[in-house]
Design brief:
The chain has helices at residues 2-12, 17-24, 82-87, 108-117, 120-145, 148-158, 168-175, 179-192, and strands spanning 28-32, 37-39, 47-53, 56-61, 67-73, 78-79, 93-97, 101-107. The chain has 193 residues and is α+β, with helices and mostly antiparallel strands. Strands 1-8-3-6 form a four-stranded antiparallel beta sheet. Strands 2-7-4-5 form a four-stranded antiparallel beta sheet. The longest helix is centred in the last third of the chain and has 26 residues, at 120-145. It is globular, with a radius of gyration of 18 Å. 22% of the residues are buried.
Protein backbone atom coordinates (compact mmCIF):
# COMPACT_ATOMS: atom_id res chain seq x y z
CA UNK A 1 0.00 0.00 0.00
CA UNK A 2 2.76 2.43 0.89
CA UNK A 3 4.42 1.53 -2.41
CA UNK A 4 1.61 3.45 -4.16
CA UNK A 5 2.47 6.49 -2.06
CA UNK A 6 6.21 6.11 -2.71
CA UNK A 7 5.54 5.85 -6.45
CA UNK A 8 3.25 8.89 -6.43
CA UNK A 9 5.83 10.98 -4.57
CA UNK A 10 8.60 9.87 -6.94
CA UNK A 11 6.49 10.95 -9.93
CA UNK A 12 6.46 14.52 -8.58
CA UNK A 13 9.72 14.96 -6.74
CA UNK A 14 13.16 13.42 -6.23
CA UNK A 15 13.58 12.47 -2.56
CA UNK A 16 16.10 10.19 -0.89
CA UNK A 17 14.94 6.80 0.35
CA UNK A 18 15.17 8.03 3.94
CA UNK A 19 13.11 11.15 3.20
CA UNK A 20 10.42 9.09 1.48
CA UNK A 21 10.34 6.57 4.36
CA UNK A 22 10.05 9.36 6.95
CA UNK A 23 7.27 11.06 5.02
CA UNK A 24 5.37 7.82 4.31
CA UNK A 25 5.41 6.96 8.02
CA UNK A 26 3.12 9.97 8.61
CA UNK A 27 0.28 8.39 6.57
CA UNK A 28 -2.33 6.00 7.92
CA UNK A 29 -4.55 3.65 5.89
CA UNK A 30 -8.33 3.94 5.94
CA UNK A 31 -10.77 1.53 4.36
CA UNK A 32 -13.99 3.10 3.09
CA UNK A 33 -16.91 0.89 2.06
CA UNK A 34 -18.98 1.60 -1.04
CA UNK A 35 -21.47 4.47 -0.48
CA UNK A 36 -19.74 5.50 2.77
CA UNK A 37 -18.25 8.95 3.18
CA UNK A 38 -14.66 9.88 3.86
CA UNK A 39 -15.95 13.42 4.47
CA UNK A 40 -19.50 14.72 4.97
CA UNK A 41 -20.83 18.21 4.36
CA UNK A 42 -20.64 20.21 7.58
CA UNK A 43 -17.58 18.37 8.93
CA UNK A 44 -14.15 19.97 9.13
CA UNK A 45 -11.75 18.19 6.79
CA UNK A 46 -8.78 17.03 8.85
CA UNK A 47 -6.90 15.13 6.14
CA UNK A 48 -5.42 14.94 2.70
CA UNK A 49 -5.51 11.48 1.20
CA UNK A 50 -4.08 9.45 -1.64
CA UNK A 51 -6.49 6.97 -3.20
CA UNK A 52 -4.68 3.63 -3.15
CA UNK A 53 -7.57 1.45 -4.28
CA UNK A 54 -11.07 2.22 -5.50
CA UNK A 55 -12.84 5.38 -6.60
CA UNK A 56 -14.53 8.38 -4.97
CA UNK A 57 -16.86 11.14 -6.01
CA UNK A 58 -16.48 14.63 -4.59
CA UNK A 59 -19.79 16.47 -4.66
CA UNK A 60 -21.76 19.44 -3.37
CA UNK A 61 -25.48 19.50 -2.60
CA UNK A 62 -27.08 22.74 -3.79
CA UNK A 63 -29.93 24.65 -2.12
CA UNK A 64 -32.52 22.59 -4.04
CA UNK A 65 -30.99 19.31 -2.84
CA UNK A 66 -29.40 18.45 -6.20
CA UNK A 67 -25.96 16.85 -6.23
CA UNK A 68 -23.24 18.52 -8.27
CA UNK A 69 -20.20 16.31 -8.74
CA UNK A 70 -17.00 18.32 -8.92
CA UNK A 71 -14.74 15.40 -9.76
CA UNK A 72 -14.09 11.70 -9.47
CA UNK A 73 -10.93 10.57 -7.70
CA UNK A 74 -9.39 7.35 -8.97
CA UNK A 75 -6.41 5.34 -7.81
CA UNK A 76 -3.29 7.50 -7.41
CA UNK A 77 -5.34 10.72 -7.07
CA UNK A 78 -5.19 13.04 -4.08
CA UNK A 79 -8.48 14.02 -2.40
CA UNK A 80 -9.45 16.53 0.25
CA UNK A 81 -11.49 19.66 0.77
CA UNK A 82 -8.57 22.07 0.67
CA UNK A 83 -10.64 25.08 1.84
CA UNK A 84 -11.91 23.18 4.88
CA UNK A 85 -8.54 21.53 5.55
CA UNK A 86 -6.51 24.75 5.28
CA UNK A 87 -8.93 27.16 6.95
CA UNK A 88 -10.45 24.71 9.45
CA UNK A 89 -13.99 25.58 8.39
CA UNK A 90 -16.91 23.28 7.74
CA UNK A 91 -16.89 21.52 4.41
CA UNK A 92 -19.32 22.23 1.59
CA UNK A 93 -18.42 18.86 0.02
CA UNK A 94 -19.05 15.19 0.52
CA UNK A 95 -16.39 12.67 -0.45
CA UNK A 96 -18.07 9.31 -1.00
CA UNK A 97 -16.67 5.95 -2.10
CA UNK A 98 -18.19 4.67 -5.34
CA UNK A 99 -16.74 1.23 -4.59
CA UNK A 100 -14.90 -0.31 -1.64
CA UNK A 101 -11.79 1.84 -1.42
CA UNK A 102 -8.56 2.37 0.50
CA UNK A 103 -6.82 5.68 1.10
CA UNK A 104 -3.63 6.75 2.83
CA UNK A 105 -4.40 9.76 5.02
CA UNK A 106 -2.16 12.48 6.44
CA UNK A 107 -3.41 14.85 9.13
CA UNK A 108 -2.85 18.59 9.11
CA UNK A 109 -0.51 18.35 12.11
CA UNK A 110 1.58 15.65 10.41
CA UNK A 111 1.66 17.63 7.17
CA UNK A 112 2.85 20.72 9.03
CA UNK A 113 5.47 18.59 10.79
CA UNK A 114 6.65 17.33 7.38
CA UNK A 115 6.88 20.89 6.06
CA UNK A 116 9.13 21.88 8.97
CA UNK A 117 11.27 18.76 9.14
CA UNK A 118 11.45 17.97 5.39
CA UNK A 119 11.33 21.22 3.38
CA UNK A 120 11.08 19.37 0.05
CA UNK A 121 7.60 18.16 1.07
CA UNK A 122 6.26 21.70 0.75
CA UNK A 123 7.40 21.63 -2.88
CA UNK A 124 5.67 18.27 -3.36
CA UNK A 125 2.32 19.63 -2.21
CA UNK A 126 2.79 22.82 -4.23
CA UNK A 127 3.22 20.67 -7.35
CA UNK A 128 0.17 18.56 -6.48
CA UNK A 129 -1.91 21.68 -5.78
CA UNK A 130 -0.84 23.26 -9.08
CA UNK A 131 -1.82 20.11 -11.01
CA UNK A 132 -5.20 20.02 -9.25
CA UNK A 133 -5.75 23.71 -10.03
CA UNK A 134 -5.01 23.13 -13.71
CA UNK A 135 -7.43 20.18 -13.82
CA UNK A 136 -10.21 22.22 -12.18
CA UNK A 137 -9.63 25.16 -14.53
CA UNK A 138 -9.81 22.86 -17.56
CA UNK A 139 -13.01 21.31 -16.21
CA UNK A 140 -14.53 24.78 -15.71
CA UNK A 141 -13.59 25.89 -19.22
CA UNK A 142 -15.01 22.67 -20.70
CA UNK A 143 -18.23 23.08 -18.73
CA UNK A 144 -18.64 26.65 -19.96
CA UNK A 145 -17.58 26.16 -23.58
CA UNK A 146 -18.46 22.63 -24.69
CA UNK A 147 -21.80 21.01 -25.42
CA UNK A 148 -23.09 18.21 -23.19
CA UNK A 149 -22.35 15.77 -26.03
CA UNK A 150 -18.72 16.93 -26.22
CA UNK A 151 -18.37 16.79 -22.43
CA UNK A 152 -19.70 13.22 -22.41
CA UNK A 153 -17.22 12.14 -25.10
CA UNK A 154 -14.39 13.81 -23.12
CA UNK A 155 -15.59 12.03 -19.97
CA UNK A 156 -15.49 8.60 -21.60
CA UNK A 157 -12.03 9.33 -22.97
CA UNK A 158 -10.75 10.62 -19.62
CA UNK A 159 -12.11 7.60 -17.72
CA UNK A 160 -12.01 4.78 -20.30
CA UNK A 161 -11.65 1.97 -17.74
CA UNK A 162 -13.94 3.48 -15.13
CA UNK A 163 -16.93 5.22 -16.68
CA UNK A 164 -18.92 1.98 -16.91
CA UNK A 165 -18.57 1.54 -13.12
CA UNK A 166 -20.11 4.96 -12.53
CA UNK A 167 -23.91 5.22 -12.38
CA UNK A 168 -25.78 7.22 -15.01
CA UNK A 169 -27.05 9.50 -12.24
CA UNK A 170 -23.47 10.33 -11.21
CA UNK A 171 -22.28 10.83 -14.78
CA UNK A 172 -25.21 13.15 -15.48
CA UNK A 173 -24.47 15.10 -12.29
CA UNK A 174 -20.81 15.44 -13.26
CA UNK A 175 -21.79 16.67 -16.73
CA UNK A 176 -24.44 19.05 -15.36
CA UNK A 177 -27.33 17.42 -17.24
CA UNK A 178 -30.34 15.22 -16.45
CA UNK A 179 -30.25 11.42 -16.70
CA UNK A 180 -32.80 11.66 -19.51
CA UNK A 181 -30.57 13.98 -21.52
CA UNK A 182 -27.61 11.67 -20.90
CA UNK A 183 -29.70 8.81 -22.28
CA UNK A 184 -30.43 10.85 -25.44
CA UNK A 185 -26.73 11.57 -25.91
CA UNK A 186 -25.87 7.88 -25.57
CA UNK A 187 -28.64 6.92 -28.02
CA UNK A 188 -27.37 9.46 -30.53
CA UNK A 189 -23.80 8.12 -30.23
CA UNK A 190 -25.07 4.55 -30.75
CA UNK A 191 -26.95 5.63 -33.91
CA UNK A 192 -23.85 7.39 -35.27
CA UNK A 193 -21.75 4.21 -35.06
Amino acid sequence: MRESLRSNIASHLDLSGGEIDSFCSLFHPREIKKKCCLLKKGEICKFEALVVKGMFRVYHIDSRGAEQILYFALENWWISDIDSFTNEKTSEFCIEAIEDSTVLVISKADKEFAYKSMPKIEKLFRIITQKNQVALERRLIDTLSKTAHERYIDFTEKFPKHYQKISNLHIASYLGISREFLSKIRSKITLEK
